[in-house]
Amino acid sequence: MMRHLLHLVIAVSTVDSACHVGVETAICHRSLEENDGLSPLGQEYVALLQTGTTRLPDRTSLVPITVQELSASKKEKARPTEGQGRKSAVAVASRGRRLTPAESISALPTASARLKLLKPITWMHVPKTGTSMLNIFYAHPDICPLVPEGVKLPDNRTRPDNDLFAEYPPDLNCPGSFKPDRGLEIQARHIGLGTLYEDLKGHIVAMFRQPEQRLLSAYYDHQWRPYHSWRRWAREPRDAVEFAVAVQGCATKMIARQLWFYAETSNPCKGPFSPLATEAESDLAVQRLREGFGFVGLMDRWDLSVCLFHAKFGGDCHATEFSSTRMDRNSSHAQYDTSELRGFKDKVDGRLFEEAVRIFEDDTSRFGVSPSTCSESCWPRADF
Fold first, then answer.
1. For a tag site, which of 45, 219, 288, 383 has the least CB within 10 Å?
2. What CATH number was assigned to the domain covering residues 98-377?
3. What is the pTM of this model?
4. Cα 198–203–205 angle (5° rounding)?
5. CA dihedral sign of residues 342, 348, 349, 351
6. Sign of CA dihedral 108, 110, 114, 117
7. Domain-by-domain residue ranges, the chain?
8. 15 to 12, 27, 80: CA distances (angstroms)
């Protein structure tokens, strides 16, 4: 295992050249091989900085980024054949293999026991997969027991989560449910798992979304609310394709990339300077998703995901859990015409999404969740 330390410094004082005293950074000394890891727009910016043609804006923020280098050997890991991943956790245990953290949760016989093992919860909030996940947490009596019934995210706000946290702080209203040193307020900011994964595995919950839909949602959100998934000091993307190329692989990087976070780089998905996901990171992300996530939901099947969460972890369904916080085109629940991407596919996150779908379908089968059972057991209790 090797670690490659990459320093990106957005600290520029008033100097004649961006690559002299004003930027104490490896940007000015990156090799061509290192630049290959960036999107075309990221490479464009680095080239301009190295020649002194342009410079970053005046701000002071050192951002060290460490990217974990997996084994130099690129042996293809054997993927499970169709059906292997659908064995029950109990059956796996009976064969003597040690259960993964995810399997350990599913193997428990009651929802209350599964929720107890899931805590303290870490929400990995992939951009544009539903801030409304907070409504699920806040409505659950055993996660946020001190939140009054009916409380939900404010509608049509730029940062509804901030408003919710200000009125109902999670540390006071959800005692013991989230890590005190990595609270829900931090988790809501699209923080990656990084080096903390080993401590967090088995406690992670996340929603995933069809990658091209997620990219277009972020692109239009960026136009409506500037700088979502985009650096504030970078030029505007020319179109949806350039945006998508620069920020692709977001979920994969959040799971696999090793980062120490400062300032606005807390979101490893932001373009155009975030290096593209590698094959090793893709392998690692799929493995971590399979082994370390206590709950996997799908943005594209939100209602069924809500029902699955309750089937797995108990608590009654509430109408607030089935609503979107932004009722317009920029809503995370909107559907987009992907022809605008002119054939571009986010292959890295596409592979991860396929694994998320497999896990989701395994769980819906294991816990008996379907549209019909959801309408019978969950929706009536939600008082629609």
1. 383
2. 3.40.50
3. 0.76
4. 115
5. positive
6. negative
7. 1-69, 98-377
8. 8, 16, 56
